[in-house]
Amino acid sequence: MDGRALYEQTRSMRMHYLLWALIFGFGFLSIGTASAPDPAGQQAAGIVAGVESGAGGKVIINEKTKRLEVRDEQGSLIDEMALGTAGKVVDVAGQEYRLSFGKDEMGRQSILVRAGPGMLKPVTIEILGRKSVLTIEASLLVTIDEKNRIYYEPSICGNIYMINKKNGAAEAVKL
Asked: pLDDT over 90 for what percent of the chain?
């Protein structure tokens, strides 16, 4: 074997080893970044498992007054707002929410919920009978149409989990 052939063979082996080193390096890099925990998902799983209480505010519309009411877990009235309220901050059991209550361009009542400015962790809130866990970046738009059907629309930022209970079993569904 002459010098040129030996050089080509060792060069080929080095390239082969370099290629495999890159493949393994990027594989470990992607595994490390993919395992970041989702705090809202963990909180929703804790509520489903019964480990966390999921205590937070309850948002309802009072049919007599047509106002949006915010209540605590025991049902006590914390705050209420009229149609047309925007960005009102309400604190319930240590969880802060920013709420807006109005009508959309089609005349449907709508509620916009976000975590309050002081929150550093996900918030739990029950809106018109459905419990939700929102990350601090997320917002949830709830719209009620003329037939009283309720639509839950997540924002494109953050994560939202709905806690569904059927026949005694609970599950967390990511929107």
From this structure: 7
Distance CA(53)–CA(50), nearest Å, equals: 7
Average pLDDT, the chain: 77
Q: Which domain holds residue 1?
A: 1-36
Q: Is the same domain home to 20 and 83?
A: no
13 in the same domain as 62:
no
* pLDDT tens-digit map of 15-29: 666 666 656 665 555
Rounded CA gap, 60 and 111, in Å? 10
| Same domain (yes/no): 16, 88 | no
| Shared-domain flag, residues 10 and 54 | no
The 10s digit of each residue's pLDDT in 132-160 is: 888 888 888 888 888 888 888 888 888 88
Q: Which among 20, 52, 21, 56 has a CA at the least distance from the CA of 39?
A: 52
Question: How many domains does one find in the chain?
Answer: 2
Report the chain's terminal Cα–Cα distance, integer Å: 65
Q: Which two tokens stand for residue 125?
A: 């809130």
| Residue 32 and residue 114 in one domain | no
Distance CA 13, CA 21 (A): 12
118: amino acid identity, one letter:
G
In tens, the pLDDT along 115-126 reads 888 888 888 888
